[in-house]
Amino acid sequence: MSVRHVLAAPAAAQASVQLFAADAYDLTTGRLVGTTGAVVALAGVVVGGLSLARSTGRIGRGSGKRGALAALVAGAIGMAVGAVNLAVADGGPGTGNGVLGGAVALVLGLIAVVLGRLALVRSRRAGRPAGRSADVRASA
Questions:
Q1: Helix, strand, coil abundance in the chain, percent, nearest 5
Q2: CA geometry: angle 90, 27, 78, nearest 5 deg
Q3: CA angle in degrees (0–180, nearest 5) for 86-90-93
Q4: How much is the pLDDT for 17?
Q5: CB 40 within 8 A of CB 113
Q6: In 61-98, which ranges are continuous DSSP H helix?
Q7: CB-facing half-sphere around the CA of 102: CA atoms within 13 A
Q8: Which of 52, 81, 94, 139 has the smallest set of CB atoms within 10 Å of its CB?
Q9: If 0-12 CB within 10 Å is exposed, 13-18 middle and 19+ buried, where does residue 114 land?
Q10: CB neighbourhood size of 91 (10 A)
């Protein structure tokens, strides 16, 4: 074994340990987690929009309370997954850590929570008897 081989061994070991940047189409764990959070939050947005439309009487029957609760839960889960994914990400966009998916999950999760809350408030308002307000019931 020559001196060159002995001196080159640590450099070769260091090169094999270095992290690599993911290709554009590689599905890494970070990208999978970020995408999953975004999909759950997107489902919350869709369900929240439908339950909001149902609570105003535009589509379907019922008050839309179940859909509103589902949108709240899906939005909260999407926001939590997105926040955790952004907190543990080492690099920025394009590194394979799912930074963009986590950010999209946060935004869509917030939208889902707002839509779910609006639908829940409207469904409670729609459940009151016609012609009687809360003030009249309290004084009676």
A1: 70, 0, 30
A2: 70
A3: 70
A4: 45
A5: no
A6: 65-88
A7: 23
A8: 139
A9: middle
A10: 13
Query: Residue 75 and residue 7: Cα distance in Å, rounded?
Result: 55
Q: Which amino acid is located at 72 in the chain?
A: L
Q: Which residue has the tokens 């379907």?
A: 60
Q: What was the pLDDT predicted at 120?
A: 86
Residue type, 85: N
The DSSP output letter for 94 is: T
Residue type, 88: V
Nearest-angstrom CA–CA distance, 13 and 19: 12
Q: How far is CA 15 from CA 4, 9, 26, 121, in A?
A: 17, 10, 21, 58
Asked whether the whole model's pTM tops 0.85, one would answer: no
Both tokens assigned to 26:
């590689």
